[in-house]
Amino acid sequence: MQQQEFHHNLVNILQSALGLLELDRNSQLYRDVTSVCNHLANPGFRIAVFGPFNYGKSTLINAILGNRALPIDIIPTTGAAIYVKYGNELRTRITMTNGREINESGTEILKQFAILDGDRRMRDDVASVQVFCPHPFLQNNVELLDLPGTNDREEQDSLVRDKLLTADLIVQVLDGRQLMTLGEREKLRDWLLDRGIKTIVFVVNFLNLLEPEDQKEVYKRLRFLAESFRADLPTNISNLYRVDALPALRARLKGDVAAAQSSGLAGFESALQSILAVKQEQMGDVRLPRAIAIGSQIKQILQAKIQPLATEVETAENKRNTKIQIQQKAENLIKQGFATSIKEFRDWLHEQTILYRYQSEATAALQQNQFSTWERDFFKPTVAKHQQEIVKWISQACEFFNYTQPEELSISFPSHPQVTLPNKPTSSDNLSDTAPVAVATGLGWVAGGPIGAAVLGGAAYLLNKNIKQDKQGSSSNAYQNQAAQLYTDAAKDYLSRFSSEALSALHQYEEKAAKVLNFKIPDIPPELTNKRHQLNLLNTCLQNLDRELQSIN
After folding, report:
1. In this protein, which residues make up the domain named Dynamin N-terminal (predicted)?
2. Residue 355, class by beta-carbon neighbours within 10 Å (0-12 exposed, 13-18 middle, 19+ buried)?
3. In a designed cystine with 51, which of 55, 149, 210, 420 is the match (CB 3.0 to 4.6 A)?
């Protein structure tokens, strides 16, 4: 139970890794992982028989079964992996790629679905082929796997390699008339060992067709070959057997025990039983090395994918954090600058301050009928300068924090004062020159005084036209004083209105601008979030796989 749970965990981890690594489904590693996972999940003991075409693989299996269950011919016929399992009667099940199942008694249907076509190609619409046979050898949860011949087409070789990973014992059939070259032997050994496949036995066929002396020489050379593959087999069990497959099949069909014995079949079957007796109890020892080998490859690929992704995520996070730190520092500086500019403008707009600075100039401009010029050239530019100082901080905040610009700081100016002078006294005194000298302090504006700001509503000042003159001699001075006061009051009213309205507008703008000045840390970009998530999944998968592999060792 514990071993099954371990197998289940490892299968889940390997399958998760396949999804995370997004390997090509046709890649060798993807197929290897899939095969190993299927192998770990299979409760039966599987014996795969493989070799080049026309080496007698199907004939050997038929001899073991004592039945012509599998099609045999002089040309490569097996065009699918045929699973031979135990059943109460000889029957065949074909599963198509579309899910349709075909069940028929006997094995005649194999000629239709499990052999190569006229171009020696496998059918691509067959998902699996199973033959059920009532043979005692299969009864104890054992299955035989007849594989297509190798060295014919690449697609067949790929299928064979995939299926070998799912076998607990591999039987390679050799042709005594055509031995493996050194290169072929090394290639096969490296491929098997790289995948943790260590349970392999060799069966040499066709030795009976050689002269006795040649048989001895060939068998001697084959023993050297087999020793280079010596691996996980029970003690005192050889990994090289001579079986003359066709004579063995004929002997079994005839019930000739002596002939079966002389063909080498009986000795080979005895070895298989001994291997089964040990390995069925130790299937974990057979399967785990393959899982370790494939798992180690997956581990390396996971590590190779994690490293650049981790660097990429770290770089992106550092860049984002640095930008946030800069923006937070900018927030403090902008807030300080904005507060300073607001305070300076507010102090400048204070009624007492603005009257102290500009009432005399405004009065003089009114007296000289130059108020528009003074307002345009001196007062408004000063207001605009304060506005610009405030707005520039808001513009910087919007640029740094990627906010939308709020409404502009709008400062209105009152309409120009309208001063209505009283009627001039009927006197010989010429009052036409009184205006320029009415307010002596207004000479500061004439000389080019401070720049001004803000305008609000207008005011008109009327004086009772019927001024009572107490004395004829004082009428001229009284008129001058009254006119001067009218100009002074008009200038004061203009500036007071401007101060009040401008301060109100400044306060409203300050409240709106507060939202722009507060930097909000932006959400993590979706791309970075996805990469973080992917990195976490890869790291978790790597940790789980590493833990499982360590528990094996």
Report:
1. 47-201
2. middle
3. 55
CA 521, CA 510: separation in Å to the nearest integer?
22
Alpha-carbon separation of residue 89 from 68, 146, 350, 360 (angstroms): 14, 19, 109, 123
Q: Quote the CA–CA distance of 84 and 78 in Å, as a whole number.
A: 13
- In 10 A of CB 74, how many CB atoms? 6
Q: Confirm if 252 and 66 have CB atoms less than 8 A apart.
A: yes
CATH number for the domain whose boundaries are 45-283? 3.40.50.300
Task: Look up the pTM and report it.
Answer: 0.64
Query: In degrees to the nearest 10, what's the CA dihedral of 202, 208, 213, 216?
Result: 20
Report which of 151, 121, 133, 130 is spatially closest to residue 51, judged by C-alpha positions. 151
- Which CA distances in Å does 135 have to 86, 110, 132, 265? 7, 19, 9, 16
What residue ranges of the chain are covered by domains with CATH 3.40.50.300?
Answer: 45-283
Cα–Cα distance measured from residue 275 to residue 277, given in angstroms and rounded to the nearest whole number: 5
**What's the first-to-final CA gap in the chain, in angstroms?**
19
Provide the residue-wise pLDDT of the chain in tens; the chain has 553 residues.
Answer: 445 555 788 889 999 999 999 889 888 889 889 888 888 888 889 999 988 888 999 899 999 999 888 876 544 466 678 999 999 999 999 999 899 999 999 988 888 887 766 555 667 788 889 999 999 999 989 999 998 877 666 667 777 888 888 899 999 999 999 888 777 788 888 888 877 788 899 999 999 999 999 999 999 988 888 887 766 788 889 999 999 999 999 999 999 999 999 999 999 999 999 999 888 888 777 788 888 888 999 999 999 999 999 999 999 999 999 999 998 998 999 999 999 999 999 999 999 999 999 999 999 999 999 999 999 999 999 999 999 999 999 999 998 888 888 888 999 999 999 888 888 776 544 444 444 333 333 334 444 443 333 333 333 333 333 334 444 446 778 888 888 999 999 999 999 999 999 999 999 999 988 888 888 888 999 999 999 999 999 999 999 999 988 887 6
